[in-house]
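BUG: 3D viewer hangs when loading the predicted structure for this chain

Environment: internal workstation, default settings.
Expected: structure renders.
Actual: progress bar stalls at 90%.

Input used:
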Amino acid sequence: MREPLDARHAAVRSVDRRWVGIHRPTDKEKHMSLTDKVTGRIKKAAGDLTDDASLRREGAQEERKGKAKDEFARQQERADRKADEVANLERETS
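Structure tokens produced before the viewer hung:
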């Protein structure tokens, strides 16, 4: 059985965002994803030059890791914007 709408909204209003664990990527984290992508590309190029398949693979993996960190940061920022939007709507309707 579902809770009445007012009870669920009251629960949402009582959540303090500081305790939810919202995380905004820092400049250092953004820098690290760029570093991963650049070093990955360099390792891939070095693997091509030396005909070393393992170095090429390692570079590709590191580059994918950097791209994944970027995607995570984008999605986290999107979730933060939505959370702010919900909080603003809650304040407006209270």
